[in-house]
Every structure is written in C-alpha cells, then in structure tokens.
Write a structure and sequence with these properties.
- By secondary structure, the protein is an alpha/beta fold.
- The protein has one domain: NAD(P)-binding Rossmann-like Domain (Rossmann fold, 3-Layer(aba) Sandwich), CATH 3.40.50.
- The protein is 42% helix and 14% strand.
- The protein has helices spanning 3-18, 22-28, 43-54, 93-100, 116-121, 123-144, 155-158, 179-198, 223-232, 252-262, 283-294, 319-325, 333-346, 348-354, 369-372, 379-382; strands spanning 32-36, 59-64, 83-87, 106-109, 148-154, 202-207, 210-211, 237-240, 246-247, 250-251, 271-275, 281-282, 300-303.
- The strands form four sheets. A seven-stranded parallel beta sheet has the order 3-2-1-4-5-6-11, with helices on both faces. Strands 7-10 form a two-stranded parallel sheet.
- α1 packs across α3 and α11 crosses α13.
- The chain is globular and about 55 Å long.
- The protein starts with a helix and ends in a 6-residue tail after the last helix.
Length: 388
Amino acid sequence: MNSYEKRVKLVENYLDRLDFNNSIMEYYEGKTILVTGGAGAIGSNLIIALSQLVGTNGKIVVLDNLSSIKTKDPWNVTPLPNIMFVLGDIRNDIDLKRVFKEKPQVVFHLAAFFANQNSVDYPQTSAEVDVIGQIRLMEYSALSGIERFVYASSGCAIYGSNNQIPLKEDFVSMHLTTPYQINKMTGEMYCNFYFHHYGLKITNCRFFNSYGPGEVPGQYRNVIPNFIYWAMNGRSLPITGTGDETRDFTYVLDLVQGLINAGYYEMAVGENFNLAAGREVSIRNLTQIINDATGNTAGVLLKKRRKWDTKPRLLASIEKARSLIGYRPIVDFEEGIKKNIEWFQDNWNKISQLTDFPPGMSSAVRDADNICKPKSPVWHNMLAPIKT
C-alpha cells in the first residue's frame, strides 16, 4: 500500500468510526465543492473525506497556489478521480473564474497566509491574501448563488490573551498581537457582512491548534510537526517560554468532521463555532510524549518567548458545536500523535526534501543552530514503539 492509499484508508477508517448520519451523506452526494487551500495540512485531509461523500457523480475542486510548499509540488493532493486540482490564487480573477466555471455549490475557504510569525514578517502579503483574497472569493460566491460558505477562522487568533477559560464563542478580543490574528477576525466580519447584506449562508469555524498527517515542518508551521521532525532527527525540542503553557491540540480529522457538519446543518448558518478537542496539553508534556514516542534522548531547549505569543493557556468550549452541529472529537491526543508519526515515517524522504528552516528568519528558531541545520536521520534506529 503506497502513501496515498494509506492516507485514503486513514480517512475512510475515521469516517467509518464516526458513522455520519444518512442525511449528511445524502446532502453531499453528487455535489461539486470548492476547497481553497486544499493542498494544505487541513485541506488535504478535507478533500479526501469530501471525495468519499460526493461519490463518483460529484467533484472536489481544489484551488491552491502552493505558497507554503517549497518546491511548488502538489504532492499533498491525493490523486483521486473526483478531485480536480487548479494551481491558482484567490487574489487572481482569472483563477477564480476558472474554478467557478465548475459551478460549485459549497465553498470551504481554507486558503490563508499562514500564520502568526509569517504575518509579522510579511504583513502586507498577509492582508492581501487573507482579506482582499477572501473578499474576491466571497464576491464570486455571492454572485454564483453558493449554497453554503464555510470559513476557516482561528480560535487561537481571535480570542486574545486574557479571556476566561474555557473560551466561548460569544467573547472575542480587539487586542490582537499579529496581522494573522487581525486578518482572521476581519475574515469573520466579512463573512457576517456577506451573510447580512447578500444572504450568503456562511459559517465561521474557529480552529484550535491543528495537528496530524498532512503538515510538513517549516519555519512558519505548527509546533507538532516541527517537534516530530526535530525529534526524529535526534534534536532538542525548542520551547519558546517556560513549557507550562497549554494548548488545545486538535486532530486534523476531527476538524474535518466539524467542517463537514458546519457545511450541512441549517443551524450553522450565520454562526461561529469553536472546533477543538476541549482538552489542554502543556508544551512540556507535548515534548515528553514526542521524545518518548520517537526514542529521542536530546531533551528540550528553552528559548525566549516570542513577542506576540502572549497566551499562557488555550482551552476551547465546544459545547455550542456539540449541541448545534453534532461535533464530537473522537481521536485522543496520544492516538493522534501516533498517527502523525506514522505519516512522517511513510513520507520521510519527501518531508525531508520539503522541510524549510532557513536560519535567522523565524523567532521560534532564531540562534538555535543545533535545530535548524539538518543532519542524517537517526530515527530508523532509535524509534520506540508508540503506544495508542
């Protein structure tokens, strides 16, 4: 079984375990669905799941400019017969016309200039993609009579630093610390505008700390793929802070479930939902789990906290999503880490080629030469059995 087949099987097993109700499956069957950012970490899993749901009479159209992939290679897009990949940009009218010619009925908007440090380094590009690009996409969606528009927002972004835990949808902060956070908040406001002014049926889904198969490590990527990569190379894991900080790490297919439900339930229209695990994990505990799972004995390396990283805790309330759209995360943290590491093993050569840590760019790895410089992988000999 090749890596694509394993990826499809992983999603199929998740969907079987989840057991979607018949009405959801009937709703998506035969539909044409546009997924922006469908080659990314979350999008590449979403398109596999949607491919199963729409069936042979449906179609998944992926629009992605591959900006986060070093070689501009759509290797993360599983080659299934009902998936169409279009290399293009949401800021480009020609590319938008191309994908809307396919007459999509549902749009999942995941394309973004990811994420916090990237937006700090390049704030203008961040605004052009995450604000202007979204407006253009919503214009085409409104003019085309799209049935549902599901927006990938960020709970890690819009709640600010000092809100009451667990974080609930009815309170957000205007004291945001990166352009990415500002743009995600702005994106939700534009969704609300198009809902109220044009009747576009939108739903805002606020992701929390995604992890899982599909995300390649890099200077602007999430912490878990970076930790796994460094651990499998026998490197110390850098903690930017004390290690007591907590995050609500959410397995990628649980997020996919929430997106699919949000695109179906009528009660989701015009609403905001936290999509999270509803469980805190400390960064220090995360490093211990990954080092133990990979057999890495290099420990951790304490680094100065990034200026914009002001949240000591992140924990989401998922009661609203649970009650209105039937969202229920089913993958526990240790199981998700195991599946993530297995994906790294299956795709190690490709991941090693695409991983990008130029020195001196990201504050998360600045001055950490022992982390940034690759060496020959040693994980083949040191990998420990991973407990489920």
